[in-house]
């Protein structure tokens, strides 16, 4: 804080005009300030920069809490350049205390990767990734995750753009705002996949897997931008609900509740630092920016004034009988194919070795030894 204050309070004169003992004077002045004083001054600078009536994009929904905190929810399309700009503008306008993104600890790596690396990773789906997904989520959930990754790779290839650009922009902009915290607001992905798989019947799983395997429809950037239009998005979601209502409940509705809960937790009032323990505690309303997919915005608005409890949607149900049967059949099929492959390879190898002239000559010599 002292170093930050020193930079903020530095005299903007050029180095040639500065006196020789300038840095020493600045250092002695800064020592007269406590961390609490430095915090208050920087906070005042931040509040002055914060717009009272921010000019926000049309994709932003403003929500209020009972204690006066404000939450600005930016609805985004995950493969959209304009969504990145919406996030940057919103954070710059409101100078938030907390930024919450629709990510969990299992997907946080995308914040550290550059666009080129992510583009390469999204297109490469190999056996190693499949093994990792199965190890992390189980057989059924792991396979479903790989199918969804295939869909993401299809969109990535069509658009030439890696997903999650708006989250990376949010991370960069949040680091520029003094005292701004960065929160991961989504439910852990293994919980989501396991609950989604448990909610589907055997034939629904087969139908969904078949549809994901053969997804090849062309996608344009205009199609992605249309997803930011609430009317069109609601129509698409309605079609999905009709096809797989239980899947919509676990992947969308339950995560709406979880995201709402995390946003409300982030919007709790901020305690100001105290010069001493005897000084009374003071609180100010918080300003929060949430960055979520546009499909979650209606659910967040719907759940905002509800008393939310997330214990139920965090539990993982035991595997159903159909899942156990499918898992057994899948394992038996894999081991059967491996065994048959080894048998065929071994059988052909033996035939090839026996047909070689050198082998036949050696066998002939061995048969002649007992006769002699």
TrEMBL record:
<dbReference type="Pfam" id="PF01963">
    <property type="entry name" value="TraB_PrgY_gumN"/>
</dbReference>
<protein>
    <submittedName>
        <fullName>TraB domain containing</fullName>
    </submittedName>
</protein>
<feature type="compositionally biased region" description="Low complexity">
    <location>
        <begin position="8"/>
        <end position="17"/>
    </location>
</feature>
<dbReference type="InterPro" id="IPR002816">
    <property type="entry name" value="TraB/PrgY/GumN_fam"/>
</dbReference>
<dbReference type="InterPro" id="IPR046345">
    <property type="entry name" value="TraB_PrgY-like"/>
</dbReference>
<feature type="region of interest" description="Disordered">
    <location>
        <begin position="1"/>
        <end position="32"/>
    </location>
</feature>
């Amino acid at each position: 804080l002292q170093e930050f204050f020193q930079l903020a309070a530095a005299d903007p004169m050029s180095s040639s005009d500065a006196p020789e003992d300038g840095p020493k004077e600045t250092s002695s002045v800064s020592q007269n300030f406590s961390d609490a004083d430095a915090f208050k001054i920087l906070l005042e600078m931040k509040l002055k920069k914060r717009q009272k009536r921010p000019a926000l994009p049309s994709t932003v929904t403003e929500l209020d809490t009972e204690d006066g905190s404000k939450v600005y929810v930016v609805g985004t399309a995950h493969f959209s350049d304009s969504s990145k700009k919406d996030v940057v503008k919103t954070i710059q306008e409101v100078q938030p205390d907390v930024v919450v993104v629709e990510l969990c600890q299992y997907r946080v790596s995308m914040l550290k990767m550059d666009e080129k690396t992510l583009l390469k990773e999204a297109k490469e789906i190999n056996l190693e990734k499949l093994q990792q997904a199965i190890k992390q989520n189980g057989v059924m959930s792991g396979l479903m995750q790989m199918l969804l990754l295939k869909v993401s790779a299809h969109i990535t290839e069509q658009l030439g753009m890696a997903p999650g650009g708006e989250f990376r922009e949010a991370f960069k902009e949040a680091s520029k705002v003094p005292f701004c915290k960065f929160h991961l607001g989504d439910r852990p992905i293994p919980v989501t996949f396991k609950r989604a798989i448990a909610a589907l019947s055997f034939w629904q799983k087969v139908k969904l897997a078949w549809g994901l395997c053969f997804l090849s429809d062309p996608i344009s950037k205009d199609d992605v931008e249309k997803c930011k239009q609430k009317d069109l998005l609601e129509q698409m979601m309605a079609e999905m609900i009709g096809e797989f209502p239980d899947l919509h409940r676990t992947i969308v509705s339950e995560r709406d509740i979880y995201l709402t809960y995390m946003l409300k937790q982030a919007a709790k009032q901020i305690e100001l630092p105290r010069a001493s323990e005897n000084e009374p505690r003071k609180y100010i309303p918080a300003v929060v920016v949430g960055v979520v997919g546009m499909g979650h915005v209606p659910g967040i608005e719907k759940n905002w004034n509800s008393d939310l409890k997330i214990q139920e949607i965090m539990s993982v149900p035991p595997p159903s009988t159909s899942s156990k049967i499918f898992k057994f059949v899948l394992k038996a099929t894999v081991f059967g194919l491996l065994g048959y492959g080894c048998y065929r390879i071994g059988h052909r190898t033996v035939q090839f070795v026996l047909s070689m002239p050198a082998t036949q000559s050696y066998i002939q010599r061995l048969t002649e030894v007992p006769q002699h």
